[in-house]
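Reopening this one. Same input as before:
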Amino acid sequence: MKKKSYTVAVTGFGPFMEYDYNPSTSIRDNLPRHLIRKDKPPIHILKYPHNINCIYNEVLNLVPQLWSGNLSVYDPGTASTKLVEIDLMVHIGMHPDSKGYFLEKRARRGKYEQPGDDGSLLARDALKGLPEKFLVGLDLDGIAARVAESVGVGVSCCVHRDDDSSTLIKTSNDAGLYFCELISFLSLSILDQRKEFARVVFLHVPTGRDDECINRGVRVAQALIEQCVDGLPGDYRLAA
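Same output, byte for byte:
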């Protein structure tokens, strides 16, 4: 049974490594807070207000808060007792080596061997006991095609990272085994533990920072949110 309205949480990363700017935060900040749609349930967008740092302990501690349902996580001025149901989580991050957009189809436990921006490594037992990988439950290939049609760009499925096109929305099986993949893995692990549908999407965006690039990123992210919400099963609380 479809809901009368949906709530989508969106996060963005801050600058990392040698990169002094991350467009994911500008895309997040420029998304509307409400999407009113004709003949479809409205969508409320909760924007996590802080730029996520590439520091392992911070991300490990943050993800459970994002899924806690505590509205004050997204709106610090709200009473900490007010709860909200998160219907979809969209993490956004920058991919330095691409001019297109990637929808990540899986997240791996892998080996996160690169240090964070504070020089620390991921604790060896941080992901102990978790599965080797998690798969996103949504049909991202179909969603990528519909987003591309909506935004007016091209689409390609499971391409390699050396694809140089600036006009493609792509699905990918390799999120990079760094913080973008880690945050997806942690989000999916929470839903797995709850035995709920894997309703997490990671959107990799290109590096452009001018208004045209940000506006295009906002259009892609908004279309992605709408298509993902429409693709949720009737009872997404149950695992597929």
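So the earlier flakiness isn't reproducible anymore. For the record, Helices lie at 23-30, 56-66, 140-151, 179-194, 211-230.
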